[in-house]
Amino acid sequence: MTQAPRSELSPEQLMPLFSDVAIPYTGHRDIGTVRWFGADSERHYLANKHPLLGPDDIEYAFNRHGYRCIEFDERERFDEDHLHLLIVGESHAFGLGLPEERSYGYLVARELQACTGREVQHWNLSQGGIGADYIARVLPSALAVLRPNFVILNFPNRHRREYIFADGNYMTCGDGDQVAGSVYTADRHDAVQSAHFEHAHDDSNRFNQWKSFIVCQRHLRAHNAMWVAQASFSMPPRFNQYIAMEKLVPGRIMDGRQALYKDKPGLLLARDGKHAGIGPHADLANDISGLITREYALEIRRLAEKQAQRAG
Predict the structure, then answer these.
(1) Which pTM does this prediction carry?
(2) Intra-chain end-to-end CA distance of the chain, in Å
(3) d(CA 249, CA 148)
(4) What is the enclosing helix (H) or strand (E) of 147?
(5) Which end of the chain has fewer CB atoms surrounding its CB within 10 Å, N or C?
(6) By the 8 A CB rule, do 161 and 176 touch?
């Protein structure tokens, strides 16, 4: 199958764009399962074959809302012994160019499963090209519907900003062209791009990223979830007092990886040749798993003990 184009959302699909009872649709709804997606294209692969990942090694399985995970109504079939991990972020968190089981969110879920002795379901609500405000918009819905025990947030480039139209359709702008959203129409694209480059500036983008993180932090505390975030802020030091710095995995997934994998190109990069590959994902999964198990050692021990009692 080939990738289906994005289009404008219908009125019915626009309804839960902001909701505490339903998770919003994306512009990639109703695609099903595809072999190629976004920058991970067949055209690129034929011109630049990956050393490890072939054309049949990756499937992108989307639910009907457009996310790379199972259907959301499946949440209700899990019993109380199951745990749930939610990840919301950009294309690296999405796992672009990798099999799902090689993405760092999936690997963290497996590590938490080993630590607790309980099945951990991985819910991936990440989208390529999104901005920090996407995470702040989607997270409250995901917390309400999926009720996760663990949450990982992956904050992207601060220059990406989400724009929502009066009818509920949306798009994201970054340093260059439109990078994500539910609309491709030229008139909307040009108007938003013009406004974006005319009014957005670095100070505003920095504050937007920081503000979005604070919003997410408040929702996570209210939900009482065990959470960590991959994020780096460029704010004056006085702003750090509002951030749970102990829950941050600093930097970006590719920071320092080029030297580490300079002789292993098949591990450094994903099949698309741009995004992080198998090696960096495994490394980041170890970093995140270590932070979660240290930060929430008591909670995880209690989960494991409770499971052992049930098994006994």
Answers:
(1) 0.90
(2) 47
(3) 20
(4) none
(5) C
(6) no
Burial 49-88 (b: 16+ CB within 10 A, else e): ebeebeeeebebebbebbbbbeebeebeeeeeeebbbbbb
CA angle 211, 216, 218 (to 5 degrees): 95
Residue 4 confidence (pLDDT): 39
**Residue 187: predicted pLDDT:** 65
Q: Where are the beta strands (DSSP E) in 96-247?
A: 120-124, 150-154, 161-164, 170-173, 178-181, 226-230
Q: Which domains does the chain have, with CATH numbers?
A: 11-311 (3.40.50.1110)
Record the tokens describing residue 146, joined without a space. 């999926």
Contacts of 93 (CB under 8 A, 6+ apart): 87, 103, 104, 105, 124, 126, 152, 154
- Look at residue 164 in the predicted model and tell me its pLDDT: 79
Position 2 scores a pLDDT of 36
Q: What is the pLDDT of residues 205-221, one digit of tens each?
A: 888 899 999 999 999 99
Summarised one tens digit per residue, pLDDT across range 40-99 is 999 999 999 999 999 999 999 999 999 999 999 999 999 989 999 999 999 999 999 999
- State the amino acid at position 45 in one-letter form: Y
In the predicted model, residues of the chain with pLDDT beneath 70 are 1-17, 29-30, 175-189
Compute the distance between CA of residue 274 and CA of residue 277 in angstroms, rounded to an integer. Answer: 9
**Are 78 and 84 a contacting pair, CB within 8 Å?**
yes
3-state secondary structure of 272: coil
Instruction: Read off the tokens for 54.
Output: 């072939």
Cα–Cα separations (whole angstroms), residue 67 to 60, 223, 309: 9, 22, 36
Give dist(CA 124, CA 131) in Å, integer: 16
Q: Among residues 194, 77, 102, 88, which one has the least CA distance to residue 141?
A: 88
